[in-house]
Fold each of these.
Amino acid sequence: MRSKQSNKPKLLWIQGVTCNGNSHSFLNLPSLERLLDSFELLYHPTITTKYSLEDITECKIASDIVIFEGTYDPKMKRNDISIEKLLHFYAKNAKYIIAAGSCASFGGMFKAVSPERNSGILFNEEQKSGPLCSLEKKVVNLSGCPIHPEWMAYVLEMIAIDREIVLDELHRPVELYSNLAHHGCTRNEYFEWKVDTKGFGFKEGCLFYEQGCRAPMTHASCNKILWNEVSSKTRIGTPCFGCTEPGFPRRNLFRTQTNMSIPQDVPLGVPKRSYLTMTGIAKTFHIKRLEGKLIDYKKTH
Amino acid sequence: MITKKLIERIEGEASVYFKMKADKVDFASIVFPHFRGMEQILEGKNGLDALVITPRVCGICGHAHLMATVRALEDAYKKSGFRVEISQKAKSIREFTLIMEMIQNHIKWFYMVAAPELDKLLGMEHTSKPLKGAYVASLAAKAIAVFGGQWPHSSYMVPGGVTSDPTYIEILQAKSIVDDLIAFFEKESLGVSIEKFLSFESCKEFNGISSDISLFEEKLIQAGMHQKGFAHDNFLVMGEHSFSKATKLKHTRPYSVDVKYISTQDAYVENSQESYAKNALYKDSYYESGPLARLMASSFGMVKNMHRRYKDSAYSRSMAKVFEVATLLVAAKKLLESIDISEKSVASMVAIENVTAEGIGIVEAPRGPLIHKVTLKDGTISDFTIITPTQFNIGSSSREKPTPVQEAMKGNTQQEALFIFRTFDVCSVCTTH
Amino acid sequence: MARITKEERKQGIISAALKLFSERGFYITTIPDIAQKVGMSVGNFYNYFKSKDILAKELVIYISEYLGAEIRQINERDITTQEKISEIVSMYFDMAEEKPEMIEYFLRVYLSNREVFSEGCEGMICVSAFVTEMMMFFDDGVAKGDLRNQDFFSAFGLFMGYLGGMVFLFGEKILPEPLEWYKKSISQNIYHALKAE
């Protein structure tokens, strides 16, 4: 007798070298229960499922959707079975393979553990030379460190309603990764008029010129789909570290790389000359409202 | 004969090697199979980059790592001769988000690990919804995000304070989230108000109350956990916070502590399997750390009574986590009320390139003391050492000198031992980092 | 006979104005003076430049764009940073010799009469074309590892202050040798002052 379960796509979440950040971020999804109801969850590293890790490493059941979290290290083993074997078996039999996080997408934070052999499942930083090259048509990269749970929900729901997910050249869904982390930051006006924040801990000022903010160069929806439904790094004064891009993690993250006070990297697609001309003009003007405190608590009437 | 059991859903895995005597555990060794080398990754990096790297040691307690790192960096600043004056506002905000992570952790442990595993041990069908725990935990994460921008993996603490400069909008938002958390915890988990719960003399007062925790408590007794899972009855707390006092307890006697007495040694496994973990010791002895240790150190009435009857059994260890959620929720509210938004968020500090010194940062992470030791040379990391709480609790040593978990597992069936193992709330990724 | 375009007319006014300002001085030269030199009526002149102040600002922008274009050409050549410095110095000094009215206007009118330019030429907006190209030069030099990374104004001040100073001395007829003669040593000094260790 066919149970209701058997019509739902099978979902499997396995890990390489990871901190579990993407798993925990996923657990923050408000609609988690409802989302998981659309799938038959075979295995997840934190949620109790029908199958245990021991069952999964036997490689007997195929899954329609495979989510891989963590850097791919072919020599790593889970329950004494190599990740290479696990990924190969599950990827071969899946319709969709989702890289959850920057480690699985590009190598990320833990590529440095063994730089010569660690990579993402499809990309090794920017090069398409990961283990799943021959299956690249099935791979969706959700880069981020960690991913936002709504990004995973988007992909899974699109799969559940059988809609094509349009991807960019790094296999990231264009609907999630076409915005820059810069779009929607509450400090935008300071960016427009080139008012830098001097140091950390202020509501005022843009973090791009001195504090290392990568948001104008980073594809992410962080200031559009807010984190934990309430906020984002840049809104509370922490610079964006560019975690959705292949270069993450970069170095000297809290300081903007400048050459003679000129930012090394300017907003994506903007010619440096154009940027410098605009900046030069904007920096000439001293807009009193923007250079003072945003909120004047001493105002009485 | 040695049986190997794989334990998963401990933020990674571990293997327990049981040596049995009939159907009871004679001795057990623990192996953690994965290693990433975070300390090597940190070498050569700018000191501030550690604020982004160390949270990635762990997805469930990364925020504790962030605080340990920022404290270590600030200590290095001080040792280099610079004054570090963090405003009370910044201290309170940091403490608040640390507490929220701890609450999130314990709730997940309870609903997603302990409760289902206890039912499994008793051969019962697990009826409660583990995802309930995920929902409640997400509220705590939301409260962190109000100040920290996001959870997991915020890096909003910098030397001198915090990057966020909140208004009362954020304070009230956080308060509202904490109120929602409390409402849920009281209604679903406790079955009574937190005030009432914290005034309990003993868990007998749960009688007549039907809630997730009262049921759990009954089942712990049913499984005999109040008479099993005893470790050495010694406790260690190293982090100084509004909710914890650094102290060591030999049974109930308190002693002062100093971080210089903490040492680590390679894990020892009887059948010479390779474990990447290192055991952590205080003055060459093993101590239990975590919620039970912290509550014992704070002389919390109900816990003292519980300990009088049940010592450091698996029961006490488990119930302590529940108690701690309640006390932390109260502490969190107090912190929010105390925040003066007119204070500075970050004290002005010189550039980190001016710092050449060794700094130590200690925090109480959900499972116990988390220690970061950083050596900076002109602001660049030349050495970084991390000691995590699971190294204190879940070491692997010899029969002559068993670690807390090894002592606790002895003399029980394998199934019981595996549950007792979990009452320590193990974090595999932190242990080997 | 080909009709002179508006653009060529405008160019004519600019050249004439610069020459007159250079020969007679900024304040002494009047609009009628300039109009007469170009051979147009004063009324027609005002079709091109609405006032002397506006003309003054347009001249700064014109010179800045001219200099900017020259430096851009140098920036885009496939030569070393050291060679670029020589080229910029050479171009600047050549301009000072061949078109003295341009650099002179910049040094003696723009920099010395700030009150004329306070409205509409705040800060560096009117010279942005030139400053932007210098920024591109510095950015490229540091990125390549040829120049020492430092504050922009420290480097800019050294480079441009030095060149401006030399041209000023040249204009005062204090330099014993022609400007050409100083190109090599000045380029060398600038390079050694700015280069990476």
Note: Chain C has a mean pLDDT of 93.
Amino acid sequence: MEFGPIWRALLRNKTGAALIALQIAVTMAIMVNAVSIMQERSRMMARPSGIDEHNIFAISSIGFAADFNERATIEADLAAMRAMPGVVNAIQTNSMPLLGGGWSMGLQTEPGEGIEGSSVAVYFVDEHGLDTFGLNLLAGENFSATDIQWREMGDTQWPDKTIITRAMAATLFPDDPDDALGKTVYINDDEPITITGIIEQMQAPWNGWDGVERVMLTPSHTLFGGTRYIIRTEPGKRDELMPQVEKLLAESNKDRIVRSMRTMDETRERSYRGDSSMITILTFTIVLLIAITSLGIVGLASFSVNRRTRQIGTRRALGASKLAILRYFMTENFLISLVGVGIGAALTVGLNIIMIETFSLTRIAWYLVPVAMLMLLAVGQAAVYGPARKASSVPPAVATRTV
Amino acid sequence: MFSYYLKLGWLSIRRNPLLSALMIAAIAVGIGASMTIITVNYVMSGNPIPQKSDQLFYVQLDNWDPNWDPNDSDDGNLEPRDQLTYLDAMALMKAGKAYRQVASNRTGLVLEPQGEDEMPFSVDTRNTWSDFFPMFDLPFIYGSGWDDSADQNLERVVVLSKEINERVFGGENPVGRSVRLNGMDFRVVGVIDEYQPVPKFYDVTNDAFGEAEDIFIPFNVAVEYQFPRNGNTNCWKKPDGDGFEAFLNSECIWIQFWAELRNDTEKQDYMDFLNAYVAQQKEIGRFPRPINNRLSDVMEWMEKQEVVEDDAQVMLGLSLLFLMVCLLNTIGLLLAKFMGKSTDISLRRALGASRSSLFVQHMIETGLIGLGGGILGLGLTWVGLRGIEMLFEDIVKNLVSLDWVMVVTAIGLAIASALLAGLYPTWRACRIAPATQLKIQ
């Protein structure tokens, strides 16, 4: 191949080539870092919440009348909802995965003040909790109806049983998480609680928390004035049951209002809306960037072909084939792009280091760099093909004409 | 001469329509992308109360767990927690050492309209003090805030937002009438006009870009009737005993506290007062950590609370790099274009045009392209902001307005970047010697 002459010819007109190379380099730096952010977000969004998301919806009930009887209301609501055909089960609780707001406590393995406990998300549930959320009990047993207490807003005592996630067991007993069943842990410094069950997996309400899999279920109903019901339906029945449940609750008791009825799918969508929007924006950015860079290559290549019409004609007249001309421009772009992606690789890593330090983002996956290099080389070749074709069709006779 | 150059520029742009269109498009896309993100960042980091942001101070006291080890000690100073306990907030209110002071928190109540057919609905509520309204310059349509005696005497008074007044009283003057909240009658004393500080600085703990509250009631009344709290509550120590009373006397934090201090002397005096207060509390066994009180003015507080999200800043960086790609593109294309005019330029040089006049002529041409790119880019910015609004829906409702500052910035940025991009190509063009190019002819 005629790399040598083409390279020397390039060096005679450095600026244009350098600009293209630089443009490719910056494009690559943005592209790879953007893809890396997208990968990170997708991974985050792909984590399962641990519950039967597609068949669950939630609705809030807020009592306001002066003589509102919350306990009677909750008991009546739950009985009525559980009796509805199509409803698998229903519970009253304080929060749910991906909701964004909830209750957290600290658990410690030894009693006493001044010990740093492990934070854990608390869900108050009754004996229907496991079934309603669709949780998989690995060891131990479910709560029984007699375990369930009624908790008022200012109460500070905790029931003496809990079911925790396997991740929480691993946090509390890093050496032997499988042996956590039956162990005693302490809440509020010295209140003992026995671990009576371990569930496979369930997320806390906060998707960005680094302890997102650390959850404890506490056998209590809550009397906080406002509450949330979680309803699990048979597959396919959710959408038809939602208005029925809303109507049932709204009409059965006028001392409260019902609001915020939402499917778990929607809660997930809202919870990750920032991340999914970021992915959309970044995708859009990458597409635009590649378009701009390709158009730039097309523009400059066309211009250079126009300028060199006479030169091309001369080469053709001296016996160069059409293919040789085509190859010349393709090779020229290849060399420029090669320099571009070379600088680009360095810029990409540099930008990534800045991003890691400033925004604690993750490191880019190693394979993204070579993939992006190959891709941009291909984009360059595709962009220059049109102008190069045009160049190759310059007739040899042009050489004999004056401009 | 200027209009002549404008004409020449226009002709030159017309001569290579494709190349010119490409340049305008490149600038427009770069401006559109970066201005969209700059606008979001600009609004996020905006000053919500510019007239007195340096006189309003957020108060932090460090009542936390002696074993607490916060990770965010970048500056070597441990930052205290972001809210106050009821005990401390009430003590500071009672002392009244600041020019104005406000303890407040968020709650949700249910409002029952008078009409038979109208359904009760929930209203976002702020429990606050009389000073809240003059301190944060809330605009009133009817009536005013309540006065100090209402705070002291637990009067059930309420200030409504414009929207709630429309809904409940059809927008008429409701002052003196009553509304039913959680089964109790409250007397309306005022209605505020549209009010939506962005960020909602007085409570960034609970959603910095959330909607302003629907109604405002006296803090003491909310405590008296034990209305449920809707905001963030954190405890490091279990309350001594069950019940609401025990909770009030606990080390749980759930109240935001602001003080208005008009000058440095007042600020210093207040800081001295806070330090003395904590020292005195230490004597009765509270505040186990070293004295670490903070007064942050509005913008300092926004900074500390990292109100501008990381994502927005990452996007800002990427979008500026994006603009750079677009400019590199424009430089290349301009270079190609001006080099293509070599004959033209050398002819003009040969006929006596000076380098400086050629320079001016080409910069004007470049500026025209920048102006075109800027106007088109402004359109794209608008489209981009609508796109962001669609993506995030209600979450960023207050973030995507384009004000005149942003319009001027967009066009200015476009022209400035085009001129910057044009400098090198123009310089190259001006160096073309008069004779060489003519020889070929």
Note: Chain A touches chain B through 61 residues (CB under 8 Å).
